[in-house]
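Fill in residues.
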């Protein structure tokens, strides 16, 4: 699947993307992506190869002009009802990440808006929700720009990294969400 916007192409990862991916995953910008850190180009190549099989829900964000991969966006279908025998996979929780050098230029909004359209229109999304840490103002603002509601703040919700003394560092997490019927009336 390929999604096109004014300045961007969202496409599956492919061989050759490793240099660009290493550029932004060598030092993940936020704790929640710390487990995605790449330590070498070899690791980056393996990671790109693994991702290249993901053609429906995991996209490289690529500049139309130069072909450079400046980030990524992904979300997979989740069941809304964990207890049903045949739960509808109509809920999605996106992750988004841009290379530091390309932030603040509206690319994340452009990519996420097109990705949400795709999920709601083509992939049966009923609800899209996002978690973001209380200090991550850029991600919160992106959620708001996309029309997502702030639904709550979960105190000391999750830990991605440890404190200096080895104890888990728990982070406060906001949840934002938007329903298909809200998206359609935007
Ligand atoms: C979150 C992220 C993808 C946003 O990318 P971006 O390029 O800054 O987004 P955009 O340029 O499309 O801007 C979206 C809005 O956020 C605002 N914004 C961007 N950085 C901001 C910051 N540090 N503080 C407050 N608002 C910010 C922009 O001004 C814009 O709002 P506006 O149109 O009202 O001015 C990017 O900061 C990033 O990759 N961060 C590291 C990874 C990450 O945190 N992922 C999310 C984990 S929950």
């Amino acid at each position: 699947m390929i999604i096109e916007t004014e300045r961007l192409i969202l496409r599956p990862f492919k061989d050759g993307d490793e240099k660009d991916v290493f550029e932004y995953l060598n030092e993940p910008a936020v704790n929640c992506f710390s487990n995605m850190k790449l330590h070498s180009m070899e690791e980056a190549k393996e990671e790109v190869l693994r991702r290249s099989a993901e053609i429906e829900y995991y996209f490289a964000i690529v500049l139309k002009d130069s072909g450079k991969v400046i980030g990524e966006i992904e979300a997979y279908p989740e069941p809304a009802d964990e207890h049903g025998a045949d739960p509808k996979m109509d809920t999605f929780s996106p992750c988004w990440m841009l290379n530091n050098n390309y932030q603040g230029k509206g690319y994340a909004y452009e990519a996420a808006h097109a990705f949400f359209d795709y999920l709601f229109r083509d992939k049966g999304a009923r609800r899209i929700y996002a978690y973001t840490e209380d200090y991550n103002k850029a991600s919160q603002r992106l959620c708001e720009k996309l029309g997502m509601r702030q639904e709550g703040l979960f105190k000391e919700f999750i830990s991605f990294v440890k404190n200096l003394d080895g104890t888990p560092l728990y982070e406060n997490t906001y949840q934002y969400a938007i329903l298909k019927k809200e998206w359609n009336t935007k």
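Strands lie at 3-4, 8-11, 58-63, 69-74, 77-78, 91-92, 95-98, 127-133, 149-162, 168-179.
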